[in-house]
Amino acid sequence: MIQRRSTEGKVGQAVPPVNSIKDDRRNRLSYLSGLALLALMLAGCSRLDMQDQPKGKYERGSDFFADGRYGRPEVDGTIPRGSLNEDVAYYEGKYTDPKDALEKDIDAFPLVVDKPLIERGHQRFDAFCAPCHGRIGNGLGMIVRRGFKQPPSYHIDRLRNAPVGHFYDVITNGYGAMLNYSQQLSVRDRWAVVAYIRALQYSQNASMNDLPAEAKARIPAAGQTTPEMQAALANEPLAPKDPDFYNWPNVPATPAGVPGVHGAGAAKSNQPERK
């Protein structure tokens, strides 16, 4: 420690080394710099700036614009593209009856129905509709076989005579226990499914006289099955190959482990894994 004599000639207090003084100043500068940086960070994360942003919402009033609205009117001559959806028949499946001015389901497709559209509808139907309605539209889909509520068959007179707009509306908005599929299916895909439903209805009610000669030649005789028919039956039999499904579909069954429902067949099951 360095000793320093006072101006009066007395020995003064001990003076710290020069290096210690420099370290102390450096520590103070670091401390002050840290405080300044923290203040800047807090200012950048201000609740006022990030949560309560100075902005205007479209439908709120405004003191900034002369008309008192935040929402600005469209520029004269603006042409909407791609989302106007003015074609009510195509986007809603409806039309206004001039006789009574009521909105009703259209009875004619608002787009060209060709083979690619029906094939697309077939693919979408099997993915989203068949689990409930069955592959042929008879209302005996796989979840119905497990005891869930059965939808009506497409082949009853009421639905065979229903306009195409009815099916489009049900797919878009739902009906009864059925939820809507507007998120899963685009507008065109909904019409594709409707076209395939019409094909299914025709397939179960067609007359031999409606078929061309080459198609008649491919139809097997009564009691015979083709390899294609056998493969289809093996993939989805008309009745489940399960001892619990007795008297099906009159008495549905729900094997153990299926949540939410309890069928009559499962309650009387003799299979050890289902007791």
Give the secondary structure arrangement, pairings included.
Blueprint: H1 18-44, H2 47-50, H3 88-92, E1 94-96, E2 103-105, H4 115-128, H5 130-133, H6 142-145, H7 157-160, H8 164-173, H9 187-205, H10 213-217, H11 227-235, H12 264-267
Notes on the structure:
- The protein is mainly α.
- Among the domains are: 87-208, Cytochrome Bc1 Complex, Chain D, domain 2; 238-275, no CATH class.
- It is built from twelve helices and two strands; from the N terminus they run αααββααααααααα.
- It has a two-stranded antiparallel ribbon with strand order 1-2.
- Helix 4 (115-128) crosses helix 9 and helix 8 (164-173) packs across helix 9 (187-205).
- It is elongated.
- The N and C termini lie far apart (93 Å).
Summary keywords:
disordered N terminus; mainly alpha; two-stranded antiparallel sheet; 2 strands; 275 residues; Cytochrome Bc1 Complex, Chain D, domain 2; 2% strand; 40% helix
